[in-house]
Amino acid sequence: MSQDQLIILRNKETGEVYYSRKNKRKVERKIELKKYSKKLRKRVTFKESKK
Q1: Of 2, 13, 32, 47, which one is least surrounded by beta carbons within 10 A?
Q2: Shortest CA distance to 11 belongs to which of 39, 47, 50, 51?
Q3: CATH architecture of structural domain 6-49
Q4: Burial 15-24 (b: 16+ CB within 10 A, else e)
Q5: pLDDT digits 0-9 by tens, 12-24
Q6: What are residue 45's phi and psi, to 5 degrees?
Q7: What are phi and psi of 41, to 5 degrees?
Q8: What does R_g of the chain's alpha carbons equal in angstroms?
Q9: Other CB atoms within 10 Å distance of the CB of residue 37
Q10: Rounded to an integer, what distance in angstroms lies between the CA atom of residue 18 and that of residue 33?
Q11: pTM for the structure as a whole
C-alpha cells in the first residue's frame, strides 16, 4: 500500500483506528465510512483524520 494513498479513519468516541486508501486526485473531501467498532460492538462512523 502506497504511503501517499494511505489515510487513517478514526472513531471519535473510542479512538479506534482503521487504515484505508484514497485517490487524493479524485476525492478532495474527507471520507466518512461506517465500520464495525470492537469496543462498542456495533457499526459506527469513522472519519478521516491526520496522520
Answers
A1: 2
A2: 47
A3: Single Sheet (2.20)
A4: ebeeeeebee
A5: 999 999 999 999 8
A6: -85, 130
A7: 60, 45
A8: 11
A9: 17
A10: 10
A11: 0.85
